[in-house]
Amino acid sequence: MPGTLHIVFSDSFSGSLRVALREVGRGDDAVVCFLDDLSFGPIDPPDARARREWVRRELAPGLRDREWPLRPLAAFWKVALAPSSRRIVWVSKRATHEVAGFLEFVWRLGEGDCDLVAFDADAVVSPKATGGRAIVLGELPPYHLTATRYWDRAEPLDVAARERYRADWARLRAENAPLRILDETGMISAPITYFDDLLIGCVTEQWRKVMRVVGEAFVSFVDGPYRQVGDVVLAARLRALAQARRVESRGDLRKIRFSEVRLPGSADAPPPVR
198 is in which domain, residue-wise? Predict the structure, then answer.
């Protein structure tokens, strides 16, 4: 009999899980990872090619095909939805990209069966070596997985939960917003400008590297209850703010390590007194 198929939505977690499964003698188990991030871009229809063109238009004009390959996405769905002796689906309900991928999977699964390992609130406690709680499953190292054996806690996805998840995704698909975020009510749609004020709050009167501004905005998610959008979206929005003259910029903003931004109208610092 073939081993269990584990379905995950975090590339780093997929690697850790593979290592952990081998170490406990579950080498026949397979792990497949959904590599797209459905927390941004169009999802109705969930066409990978159309999503790639949206990313080029809204976030990364210079995106190359090999940076957003379509073949691995098609391969994922072929394996994840094929008849299997057992599927275990892993998701952190505090990580936006994991929840979005999970909802799309449940939508496509239809009436198929799967077991679920879902983490919410403080359910995922990382080892002391990594500190505190883990919001994204990719923060869990293999030795933590071998010690906890979370796969033994997988429970069948019941009909009521399945229909609730499908209804949530149907609503989000109908809204087809540029962004999806998490709050205490679950996943909701958001405009492309949702994180603009957060970014501006990280800009000062002094020139600061774009990478630092984006990093500080991202850290606010790390310290908060949810892991929201990634640096690609944040960097793209900072470029849009510069184009709208809400921040001043110098350098090529696509190169976040070598470009800078500051608040409009800021005076240059006087030269040092010799």
Answer: 193-262
